[in-house]
Amino acid sequence: MNQNRFLAALGMTSLRHGSEIQMTSTDLRARIESSPLYNPDLAPASAERRHWGTYNFAALWVSMSVNILTYMLAASLIQGGMDWKEAVATIFIGNVIVLVPMLLNSHPGAKYGIPFPVLARASFGVLGANIAAVLRALVACGWFGIQTWIGGEAISTLLAVLIPGWKNVEHGTAICFLIFWLINVAVVVKGIEYIRILQGISAPVLLGVGLLLLGWAYVKAGGVGPMLSVPSKFHSFPDFLKFLIPALNGTVGFWATVSLNIPDFTRFARNQREQIIGQALALPTTMTLYAFVGIVVTSATVVIYGTAIWDPVQLLSRFHSPVAVVISLVAILLATLNVNIGANVVSPANDFSNLWPRKISFRTGGVITCFMGVAMMPWKLLHDYGTFIFVWLGGYAPFLGAVAGIMICDYFVIRRRELKLNDLYLRGGVYEYARGFNWRAVVALTLGAGTALAGLAVPGRRALYDYSWFVGFAVSFAAYYASMRLLGAAELSAEEAA
User: What is the DSSP string of 47-96?
Assistant: First the structure.
């Protein structure tokens, strides 16, 4: 990036340092570029890179929402006992809720052109931001492993169709998981530009697979009526609430990850209006529509097989048409590869890069993500719907809710949408706090997540865990506000005046 572009991206607000002598633009540029907090991947997006409009953000959510895990999330609600109306309503409400923090965190990305880990420096400190970034990155690693395991299952099923003897190979799914993992690593090493061609076709192809499954279910179940005839297993409202609350929390937690790192994408927005409209139109509608496919087909499997089959790969393995199975599984592989790179590598790669910007590039961070994905043991996370919703989605939700509460409070309430952009890349600036850490944010994070997790240990307080994302968000928001505005008003005023 040449000097003029760099200065334009950084906003070139005046900066005083040390002896209160104003530095020249060249001096400031050199200081920032030599800072241990800077690398080109974390720098603010320049004007020529900010060309994403309404269509781009809508297409982003269509491509990320139309994926196998959306299907499985919806199908798990049926397997858990909901009828189709209850499941559709849960998915829609959950995605409308998560859209709110999504759009709030989108604003600073679009305004300043900065990615999530850099934005987190404002609230957690220039070094403390690594706490938020690593929490987010570890969750993404888990999702990467889950998507890769699904891809491995698809390859194993595909081989079993083409080579019947493959069914007898010991650890065949694990071998295929490794193969698909290596494909993902190769894409990361080569660069994500190699996957761009798939972004335009993955969503339509998966929609086609969804229609295929709908058509099959319609024929096998004997029409729409039988497909949607499976009743709710809950015979009283209290029983329904016991499943609804964690299910709704899990639905919010499904995209709670991207609601934090959405600045990684909105930093390329042309303006606020286009990114807001694109996301608001596409996220809840696409998620609900594709989830409906999973809900209806899974309901039909109860009629056809007497049990709910929530894994579409396992369902496809029961098809008798080799051509249909091969086409569907290849489509799942391509779409899974696309979603995995876009949703589960971009963010943690930036997060790991933020740990050591001078040594860890985006590409290196992506490779770290791939190895961490295996360490998260995705085959256990997908063992059954209970583990998926209550352990995985519910377990990480309080941490992400707490981080979201702190960042939103800091940006909109404490700083009123005004950041000192240069100081986000410098030691000793406004966001230095105590040797790079804002311990008030760390304490607020601990209180928020700890309160939610206490629901697992304290008798009669299970609701705290069932509402883990909401509890984490609310407690951390309030604790951060109290410590920053009420207890630290004088210190904060001094920082803002500096």
Answer: GGG--B-HHHHHHHHHHHHSSHHHHHHHHHHHHTT--HHHHHHHHHHHHH
Q: How far apart are CA 250 and CA 396, in angstroms?
A: 10
| CA distance linking residue 403 with residue 334, whole number of Å | 33
**Pair 185, 367: CB distance under 8 Å:** yes
Tokens at residue 490, please? Answer: 């004088």
Alpha helix positions (H), 306-393: 312-316, 322-344, 346-355, 362-375, 378-381, 385-386
Say whether pLDDT at 105 is over 90.
yes
- 51-384 is classed in which CATH architecture? Orthogonal Bundle (1.10)
Percent helix, percent strand, percent coil in the chain, to nearest 5: 75, 0, 20
Which residue has tokens 């800072």? 35
For residues 423-434, give the mean pLDDT.
Answer: 90
Q: Are 304 and 315 in contact (CB under 8 A)?
A: no
10 Å CB burial of residue 434 (0-12, 13-18, 19+) is exposed
**Cα separations (Å) of 159 from 69, 163, 185, 326?**
22, 5, 21, 9
Rounded to 10 degrees, the C-alpha dihedral 134/65/448/386 comes to: -100
pLDDT in tens, 358-407: 788 778 888 888 898 888 888 887 776 566 666 777 778 899 999 999 99
DSSP state, 235? -
CB 254 within 8 Å of CB 400: no
**Separation CA 374–CA 160 (nearest Å):** 24
Output DSSP code: residue 20: T
pLDDT in tens, 32-47: 877 888 888 788 888 8
pLDDT for residue 194: 52
pTM: 0.81
Read off the tokens for 488.
Answer: 């630290």
Contacts of 316 (CB under 8 A, 6+ apart): 157, 213, 325, 328, 329
- Burial class, 235, CB count within 10 angstroms (exposed 0-12 / middle 13-18 / buried 19+): exposed
- In sequence order, the β-bridge partners of residue 22 are 16
Give me the count of residues in the chain. 498
Residue 351, CB-side half-sphere exposure with 13 Å CA sphere: 29
Q: Are 42 and 118 in contact (CB under 8 A)?
A: yes
Is the pLDDT assigned to residue 149 strictly greater than 60? yes
Give the number of other CB atoms < 10 A from CB of residue 475.
Answer: 24
CA distance 77 to 338: 25
Query: Using CA atoms, how far apart are residues 133 and 455, in angstroms rounded to an integer?
Result: 25
Cα distances (Å, whole numbers) of residue 310 to 77, 187, 227, 316, 410: 9, 29, 15, 11, 40
Asked if residues 112 and 289 have their Cβ atoms less than 8 Å apart, the reply is no
Closest among 453, 449, 435, 372 to 406, alpha carbons compared: 449
